[in-house]
Specification:
The protein contains 19 helices and 20 strands. The chain has 490 residues and is of the alpha/beta class.
Length: 490
């Protein structure tokens, strides 16, 4: 009775190149556009950008670099749980105000000056608390104290040269307070003392370094935020991630509308303290299944640059429509939405947010940076870095099969949903992010929106024809110089 031919009365689904933002009246200067946002119910960012949980994209180096610029790195899951916990801790400790006791370089009163001088040079520090056997702080010794002795009385002991009036603070000291103490007493380091014992060290250098990154995304303790991907059924790993200090746990699944995945995600949400983002989904029906418990919803079925899901399985949703459908549902519950995959240019990120996303996730965009794992290779004089889909044969062999709901198989061959590739080498995360965020801010300027929530409300789209699409790229010219935010082969 026409059942099958009715199936062909299909709705249209659109993606990045099908639409453009309609320019609107504006008083917003791009530099003033505020790009702070939420990635999940309880985690805020100062840049609406996440790096993909892929083994050629996000490990602690990239997560640290991105969080310092206001975004969020999501660690991949192709490592064992112990390694994952260590990676989370690395990010958490990267910018910490108080250097922990075990990391503080200390001197002993009976050491000679020449000995302590060599030790400090070797450890790369310019001063050290002097402690006794009970870890009580007796003084502090710095290069300034040592200098008059060098070449003259090098065999004298530390206790003679050290400053023995030490300014100390308790473990709860705050950055502002520590800095005031340093200025008042003209010192550069303050030992943290608890119960009479050395417990850590605050240095002027660490405070100033933190100030350099005043847009960093930090938790309530001032530590960098970090996300981590876990397999949809790996409750234990989610708990380990939570205990290690992850701010957001991402249920990492290519098809989160699988009801077994949703049951498990719900269990993880009930078990851990960290926020739980569920994904990936691409329809309003899927969003409706998860919106009552998820702290964030991640959207993307097949838009990724290394992704072959749509050609291998025949399933997928063009990304702009997918984001808008999910955002319709999420908005009612005030749950943030993340658009994951397919973003090649900053304009794509601007479109994804206009379609209802609170933040965007990128893989290929960051895979070529210095901070991404993997080395630079040179082909015909051009530099590249490896970039592979987590559903590629290589990545699944390294343990990533669960994302695609596939058991690890020994004899049978995997049916991959991604490819292994290379991406042009790009330089630092900070410079890439500067271009990306700058492009989003300019988009906000064209639409006349000062904040991300206002932009999501105000932005309107027009549909673009193939001719309009061609017109939008450089045409009828030969590009002679590389632009930092455009490359034609993308
Ligand atoms: P971009 O376009 O930023 O996409 O490179 C990154 C996103 O792609 C997803 N991803 C995959 N999708 N097969 C897929 O279908 C894969 O092998 C694969 N690996 C990653 C993932 O959502 C990532 O964030």
């Amino acid at each position: 009775d026409g059942h099958f031919s009715e199936k062909l009365q299909v709705p249209e689904a659109l993606t990045f190149d099908d639409v453009l933002l309609r320019p609107k009246e504006s008083r917003v200067e791009p530099d003033e556009a505020d790009v702070s946002t939420r990635v999940s119910k309880n985690v805020e960012l100062n840049a609406p950008v996440l790096s993909a949980a892929m083994d050629t994209v996000t490990e602690s180096d990239l997560a640290i670099a991105l969080a310092r610029e206001g975004g969020l790195g999501v660690l991949h899951q192709n490592m064992d749980a112990e390694e994952m916990a260590a990676e989370i801790e690395r990010v958490k400790r990267a910018d910490e105000l108080v250097i922990r006791r075990e990391d503080v370089v200390t001197a002993r009163p009976e050491q000679t000056i020449s000995d302590v001088d060599a030790m400090m040079a070797h450890e790369g520090v310019s001063g050290a608390p002097v402690v006794d056997d009970d870890d009580e702080v007796l003084g502090i010794i710095s290069n300034t104290d040592i200098r008059p002795y060098l070449g003259v009385n090098e065999d004298d002991l530390v206790e003679e040269a050290m400053t023995d009036e030490v300014i100390t603070a308790g473990p709860d000291v705050e950055a502002r307070e520590a800095l005031d103490l340093m200025y008042d007493h003209k010192v550069e380091r303050i030992p943290i003392v608890e119960d009479g014992k050395l417990d850590g060290l605050v240095t002027m250098q660490s405070i100033l370094e933190r100030r350099e990154h005043d847009d960093a995304a930090r938790d309530e303790n001032g530590e960098l935020v970090v996300g981590v991907a876990v397999g949809p059924f790996d409750v234990e790993r989610a708990e380990t991630a939570d205990e290690a200090g992850a701010d957001v746990v991402f249920i990492d699944c290519a098809h989160a509308h699988n009801l077994n995945v949703i049951d498990s995600a719900r269990e993880i949400r009930e078990t851990i303290d960290a926020d739980v983002v569920v994904g990936n989904v691409g329809t309003k029906e899927a969003a409706e299944e998860v919106v009552d418990f998820a702290d964030g919803i991640k959207v993307g079925i097949g838009p990724g640059s290394i992704c072959t899901t749509r050609v291998v399985t025949g399933a997928g949703m063009p990304q702009i429509t997918a984001v808008a459908e999910v955002a319709d549902v999420a908005a009612e519950y005030d749950v943030p939405v993340i658009a994951d995959g397919g973003i090649r240019y900053s304009g794509d990120a601007a479109k994804a947010i206009a379609a209802g996303a609170d933040a965007v996730m990128l893989g290929s965009y960051f895979a070529g940076t210095d901070e991404a794992p993997g080395r630079v290779i040179t082909v015909d004089g051009k530099k590249y870095k490896q970039y592979r889909g987590m559903g590629s044969v290589g990545a699944m062999q390294s343990g990533g099969g669960e994302r695609y709901l596939k058991e690890e198989q020994e004899d049978e061959e995997f049916v991959p949903e991604g490819v292994e590739a290379a991406t042009p080498y790009k330089g630092s995360v900070a410079s890439e992010l500067h271009q990306l965020v700058g492009g989003i801010q300019s988009g906000m300027g064209y639409v006349g929106a000062e904040t991300i929530p206002a932009y999501k409300e105000r932005a309107e789209f027009v549909r673009v024809s193939q001719a309009g699409q061609t017109e939008g790229h450089p045409h009828d010219v030969m590009i002679t110089d590389e632009a930092p935010n455009y490359s034609p082969q993308n």
